[in-house]
C-alpha cells in the first residue's frame, strides 16, 4: 500500500505536502491511497433534470416502429413519477443517429461536437438508480442515498485524498444557470463528515465565493493584529490544534481572496480559447464559462469540480422533449467538447476524469403528448479521461430503452468506479459515524472493469 | 449472503449482548465514592475517583472572569455585559457563584439557549425540504413551545410524553397539542405521486428520529435487516413503527380569529363573484391533480370517506392535500380576460382588510381508534410486506413485552402507550440518554461520546457510574433539566481551567476530565454575541421567524429580508430555518442540515468561516455599532472596554499596546472588527 502522503509529496512537491498537513490538522486523519490512481481530479458535468438517453446515445428502432402504441404487454408497467405515463403511447425519437469515430459509437445529431470526441468516451448504457423524483435522485447520484444526510462523492474524494491546492477550495461547484439543482447545497454537503470537505459553490459574476471581496484597506493590518492576538492566545494552549488551524484558515482565506478571482477570471484566456468554449455565443456562453472555469480550476490543483448543466432541473422534459433538449444540447455540446479537446491538448485528460450524466434518463412512453417522464430503470452516462478506456460501451437497455437488460450499472457502481480511478477502494474508504463504518456506496457497489484502461486485477498491484 | 451472515451473527450474539450491555439495564443509583480531592457536588466524586486512580487530580479552578463567560454562554448563549462582569467579579458573598447560576437559569435567554440542541435533535425546520421546500408558517409554535418548556423547567418526562402523545395524554392542554408538532417535523415532498411510498417514508422517518432523539439508538439499519451490531431486530423496528401507524397530520386552532364573521359578511359578495369566476377552472385543475395518481389512489379519493379504511384515509389525506394545491392554483391559470377580472376583485377584497385568521399549530393525531396494519417490510421496501401482522411491542433487548394499549374514542392509544413506556423510571435509556446530552452541552463531550448511539457500536461510557447517578438523580428530582444542570455547573469539575501547562500522557484526550474542554461557539451563538456587543440584539421572543439580511446573491432564492433592521436582529434561534438553504453564517459554522437528527455538531475550521467573519457585511455592521457604543468612553478606556466586552476579561499591557499601535493607523471600528475575528472570542475556555 502506498502512503498517500508519500505519493503526493513525490508527485507534487512540498507545496502539496504543506497543504496536506494543513488538511490533516483540520480533521481526523483520512485513510490512505489503496492503489495507483489513474486520475488526480474529477470534473462531473451533471445533466440536471434527467437527459433523454433515447434521443442522445441509445437509438431504438423498435420504438420508432411501435410509436403511438401503448407499452407492449411483455413489459412490466413501472410506477412513474407523474403517475399515468406507464399507459401513455410510446414516443419515437425524432433525432437522426449516426455512428462516429473509429469506435463507431452512436450519437444523435443533437451533439455534433461531442460526437467528434467519441473515441475518448466510455458509455455506460445500462445505468440504474433508485429514486423517482428529482431531489431524491440528484441526492443519490451525489451521495449514494435518495435521502439527505450523507456526504457526497466530492466530499469523500477530499476526505480520501486531501486537497492539492493551497489557495483554493479542493472541491468547487459551478452552475450554468443561477438556479440551484434540486436539494441545493446538500448535494455538495458533507452529511455526517466534517464540513471541511464540502464543496464551495462559485457563483457567476464578480463574487464567485461569498464574502470573498476583501476591499477593506485595513485588512492586512487587521489580519496581522488578529494573528498577533491569536498567537498570544495560543502560547499557553499549544496542545489545541484547532486554534492553530484557525490561524492558518485566516491565511488561506487571505490567499483565496487573491487566488480565486484570478482563477475564475476568464479574460485571462486567449480569445481563441474563449471562442473554443463558446463564450462568443449567447447560447453557449453560460456553459462555456463553467467548462472553461473548470479547466482553470483543475489546472490549479482543485480536486473535484462539479458543473450543474441546466441547473435547476432544466433537462426535465415532461413536455416537448424536442424543444427542451434541442436548446440545452445547443447550449452545452460545444463547451463540453471544448473541455475534452482542451484538456487533451494540454495533456490533462490523462489525469482528469470527466463524467457526463444526470440523475436518471427518460421514458420511451410519452408524457403530455410530446414529452418524456423520468426513467431510473435504464439510462446512459459517459466517462472520459483519467484512466477510462475510450471508445467502449458497456450495458444495454431493452429494445425500447425503458429497462436495463445487460450490464446493469447502479449509482453505487458508478461511484465505486470513480473512486477507483482516484486510487481509492470504495469498500475501504470508510468513515466512522454513529457506530457504523460508513462508506459512499453504503452496502453495494462494484467497479466497472470493462471501461477501465487498467482494470482492478492489473491495477491493484499495490492493493491489500 | 450478507444478510444471512448478519442474521447468524446476530442470533449468535443476542443473548450475550443483551445481558452484557449495562446501558440496556434499568438505572440503579450507584453509591457516591469517597475521594481525596474537593467535592462540590457528587459529580466530582465520580470524576475524582477515576482521576485519582490514575494519579491525577482536578486542574485549578478557573478565575471568575472565565467562569462568568463560560456560564453565560452555556446557560444563556450570550456574553456577559460589562455590568454583569463588574457585579460578579467583585461580589464578596460566599455564594456569589451559586447566585450567578440561579440568575442565569431564571433568565428568559436560558430556554432560547437550550432549545438549540433539542431542535438539532428533532431536525426542526420551517420548510418541507425536497424540491419545493414549501414554508411551514406555523412550525415556529413547536420551537416556541420548546423554549417555554425549558424556561418553565417542564419535567423531561412530560416533555417526552407530550411530543409523542400529547393529544392522547393531555387532549385539553394546548401546549401538549403543540408539542405533538414533533411528529410533523419530517422533511416532506407533498407533491410526490407515489403516495404509498411517501407515507412509508414518513413512518420510517418518525421511527428513526424517535430512536435517535429519545432512545439514543440508531435504528435505521434495522429497517432493512436485523441490526448488524445491536440486538434490535427488524421485527423490533416495525413494532416500534406500529406505534405511529395511525399517524395523521392535523392543524389545531389555538385562538379563534377575531371578528371573522364581520369580515366574512362584508366580503361575501366579492368572494362569491370571485368563486363564480374560478369555479369551473378549479374543477378542471383538481381533476389534473387527481389524474397524476394511479388508479388505486384515484379510487381511494373517490370513495365515500366513511367507507375508507384507516390506511385509505391516510392516503386520501396526502392525495387531497395535492389536489387542493391544484385547486388553489386555478385563479393563476384562468384565461387572460378572466384572470384580469379576478385580480381586480382580489384588489377590491384586499382593500376591505386582511382576513382574520385563527392562530394555528401544526400537530398530529391518530386517524381514528383503529390503526392500519403494520407489516415487516422485506428489505425495508414498502412494496414487499411480509405476511405476519406486527402489533405494538417494545424491543426485546430493552425489556420487551407487548404494549398495553387502550384505545380512545378517536385515537388508537398506541402513542400514549409508547410515551408511558419511554418515561417509566425503569426505562434503561430515556433518562441516561438525556442526562448524557446535558453533560455534552456543558462539557463538549458526552459521557457516552456517541450520544445518538448507546448501542454496542457506540462509545462505551467513560464514567458509567456517573451516568447512572445523574440519570437516577434526574428522575428523583422530577426529571428537572435545571436540577441536572446545577449538579454539573456547581461541580469543581465544571469550574476547572481549560488551559494547562502540561498534558498528562495517560489521558491526552481529557476523557477523565483533569481539565475543562475548550469549545468553539456555534454560528448562531457568534451572531447573537456580535449583536449583543453592538447593542443591536432585539430580544423580542417567539412568533413568526426573523428574516435577516443575506448576501445579495442569495436574496432571490432564500427569503426577502425583513424591512426593518431591528426586526432582523432577533436572536438566532428565531431566524427562519429553511431546509434548502440555511443562513450562510450558520451553515459556515457547521449548522446541521435540518433533515436528519443531529446529536453533536461538527466543529470545523475552514477558510469560508474566516471569510464570513472577515469580509461579511454582518460582522462589519456590528463592529461599527459596537465602536459607536464604545466611543462614549475616553480613548484609553475604549480599548480596555472593548477587550473586556469581547473576551470577558481585562487585557494585559501587551494586548493594549497592540491595539494602540493598530489605532494609530486605523479606526476603533476596525479594531472592533478585528477583535470579532480573534480565537478568544470564537472559543469558550
Outline the structure in words.
The complex is a heterodimer of chains A (464) and B (685). Chain A has 464 residues and is of the alpha/beta class. Chain A has 13 helices and 17 strands. The N and C termini of chain A lie close together (7 Å). Mean pLDDT of chain A is 87; it is low at 1-31 and 459-464. Chain A is globular and about 80 Å long. Chain B has 685 residues and is mainly alpha-helical. Chain B has a two-stranded antiparallel ribbon with strand order 1-2. Chain B has a two-stranded antiparallel ribbon with strand order 3-4. Chain B has a two-stranded antiparallel ribbon with strand order 5-6. In chain B, 50% of the residues are buried. Chains A and B meet through helix 5, helix 7 and helix 8 of A and helix 22, helix 23, helix 26, helix 27 and helix 28 of B.
The CATH top-level class label of the largest domain in chain A = Alpha Beta
Structural class of chain A: alpha/beta
The helix fraction of chain B, in percent, is 40-55%
- C-alpha Rg of chain B (nearest Å): 28 Å
What characterizes the major β-sheet of chain A?
Answer: 9 strands, mixed
Domains of chain B (count) = 4
Helix residue percentage of chain A: 25-40%
Structural class of chain B: mainly alpha
- Fraction in beta strands of chain B: under 5%
Radius of gyration of chain A: 23 Å
Tally of helical runs of chain A = 13
CATH architecture tag of the largest domain in chain A: 3-Layer(aba) Sandwich
Question: Beta-sheet strand percentage of chain A?
Answer: 15-25%
Uncertain regions of chain A: pLDDT < 50 for 5+ in a row? 1-31, 459-464
Q: What assembly state would you assign to the polypeptide chains in this entry?
A: heterodimer
Low-confidence stretches of chain B: 1-18
Overall, the morphology of chain B is globular
Annotation, overall tally of beta strands of chain A: 17
Mean pLDDT of chain B: 93
How would a crystallographer describe the biggest sheet of chain B? 2 strands, antiparallel
